[in-house]
């Protein structure tokens, strides 16, 4: 699953870490800094996901250059054309420094 985040409003930087958890979710870090909107991208279509095939170039160009951050939650470990999968992640991100 890829999660593509769009930051809408910056808020004071605060991170609350659950000391019982053995990890800090990237989503929790990002949402502590912004009020994000996100798009789930996964071929299985779960969680209202957009289901592209990451083995081929993304055909819906309305998603390109829209996101502040894209997190890969193991999607590219399941595609045959890994280079195209990472190229898609790069193309989803807004150009220039954040």
Q: Look at the helices and sheets and give the structural class.
A: alpha+beta
N-C termini distance: 23 Å
Q: Which range does the strand content fall in?
A: 15-25%
Outline type? globular
Query: What's the helix count?
Result: 2
Give the beta-strand count.
3
Q: Which ranges are low-confidence, i.e. pLDDT below 50, for 5 or more consecutive residues? A: none
Largest sheet: 3 strands, antiparallel
**Mean pLDDT figure:** 77
Would you write up a description of this structure?
Helices cover 19% and strands 21% of the residues. The radius of gyration is 14 Å and the shape is globular. The two termini are 23 Å apart. It is an alpha+beta fold. It has one domain. It contains two helices and three strands, in the order E-H-E-E-H. The protein has helices at residues 26-33, 82-92, and strands spanning 2-10, 34-41, 69-72.
Produce a short descriptive summary.
19% of the residues lie in helices and 21% in strands. By secondary structure, the chain is α+β, with helices and mostly antiparallel strands. It has one domain.
Task: Fill in the keyword field for this structure.
about 100 residues; alpha+beta; three-stranded antiparallel sheet; 2 helices; 3 strands; globular
